[in-house]
Specification:
By secondary structure, the protein is an alpha/beta fold. It folds into 2 domains: about 1-185, Trna Endonuclease, Chain: A, domain 1 (3-Layer(aba) Sandwich); about 250-293, Orthogonal Bundle (Arc Repressor Mutant, subunit A). Helix content is about 45%, strand content about 15%. The strands form 2 sheets. Strands 1-4-5-6-7 form a 5-stranded mixed β-sheet, sandwiched between helices. It has a two-stranded antiparallel ribbon with strand order 2-3. Strand 6, helix 4 (about 135) and strand 7 (about 155) form a beta-alpha-beta unit. The protein is elongated. About 25% of the residues are buried.
Length: about 290
């Protein structure tokens, strides 16, 4: 998880990728944020639990969006692999610290907005957890008019529409495509293009595939065919890679089913028929399997 988090943050920290994410998710693909107008922001902040305890909290990626000398906004990205029902509390903590830093800046004459985008990388289930502060709390009716709500911006990347995915112009398009494909198990074609941040993309594909050794072998095959430091894959190669991963995964499942049938006394003929294999193929798979008495 730590490696995946590190690679995600490294890719998103590139200004072209960061600007692309913001432009697609906040501005429907309009090129509002220019990568040259972004500067790195402080991601680490502290909060006090009591008089003797000071804790740190760190955003995944944060940038200041500038217009010349004027700061337009502070924008942060938070990556989530699993839904978190307390995410609104986390986000309000990050955003509050960013606003507090403006208060402490003696050179700051006006305030600027702080925006956090929660990027959900999950592919198996939707984000059905809370997206606002009030959803977390049980509030007495008499208090409800006095409790301010705080809503968070959650983007389920694997469920982005075709239009949204096609609006990406940076390497993040490949990330969204991969997540979409993992979720739907279908080929999702795009126009061919090579990677700009090849190393981060390939490493991210590897960790998102749960460090499957077969995936690593396939990636190494592509890397060995490239010049050192200039590794990249076209989209056709990417699809070929994941087709091979999927087919190997299915083959592995079939082998386990055959072994299980045989160990439980199912005949070779019946196994071959049900698994659409020849008897010789079944014999090769079960030759080392011990049949239960």
């Amino acid at each position: 998880m730590a490696e995946k988090d590190k690679i995600q943050k490294t890719l998103e920290a590139y200004n072209d990728v960061f600007a692309d994410i913001v432009n697609v998710l906040l501005f429907n693909g309009r090129r509002v944020v220019d990568e040259n107008d972004l500067t790195d922001a402080q991601t680490f902040s502290y909060y006090k639990m009591d008089e003797n305890q000071v804790h740190g909290q760190e955003r995944d990626v944060a940038k200041i969006w500038n217009n010349g000398e004027i700061r337009i906004s502070f924008i942060g990205l938070e990556n989530q692999m699993k839904p978190d029902k307390f995410m609104p509390l986390r986000v309000i903590g990050y955003d509050g610290a960013a606003y507090r830093s403006q208060l402490n800046d003696k050179n700051q004459n006006t305030c600027y907005p702080v925006i956090t985008l929660v990027l959900y990388f999950g592919t198996k289930r939707r984000w059905l957890h809370n997206k606002s502060l009030k959803e977390i709390m049980t509030i007495p009716e008499d208090l409800k008019p006095f409790v301010n709500d705080y809503k968070i911006n959650v983007f389920e990347l694997a469920w982005l529409t075709d239009e949204q995915i096609n609006n990406f112009t940076s390497d993040f398009r490949y990330v969204a495509t991969l997540l979409r494909r993992i979720r739907t198990k279908e080929n999702y074609p795009m126009s061919p293009k090579s990677y700009k941040h090849a190393r981060e993309i390939i490493d991210l594909f590897r960790v998102m595939s749960q460090n499957n050794k077969e995936v690593e072998v396939i990636i190494d095959e592509f890397n060995n065919n490239r010049e050192a430091g200039g590794a990249f894959m076209t989209e056709d190669e990417m699809y070929e890679m994941f087709d091979r991963i999927e087919s190997r995964g299915e083959q592995r499942k079939s082998i386990e089913v055959v072994k299980s049938f045989y160990a439980n006394g199912v005949s070779l003929e019946l196994i071959a028929k049900s698994m659409n294999m020849t008897i010789e193929q079944v014999q090769n798979i079960v030759k080392d399997v011990v049949v239960e008495a």
